[in-house]
Here is the input.
Amino acid sequence: MDEFQGFPGQCLPFLAQLNANNHREWFNQRKAAYETLIREPALTFINDVAPLLSKISPHFDAIAKKSGGSLMRVYRDTRYSKDKTPYKTNIGIQFRHRFGKDV
Here is the structure.
């Protein structure tokens, strides 16, 4: 993985567009842009933070994985929600305590 250089300039406009067009057809046509603008930089950030976080506390994990790691999924759980928009319009990153449960 490369060193984290920040999120690309198109990151926030992409999230704003996702907010305005929060449906599967729009997202599926732009999933490659999501990977490039959001997911890959976020995973690089998590990877770079991991050694620093372990110095602060060895009990918190920074896991740079596409699924099941510190990066939260873009897909919303809409089962019990009145808001049925399928995608989150933010970048969610969590550093879990080793003995804690998932969010």
Observations:
- The CA atoms of residues 80 and 86 lie 13 Å apart.
- The mean pLDDT is 95.
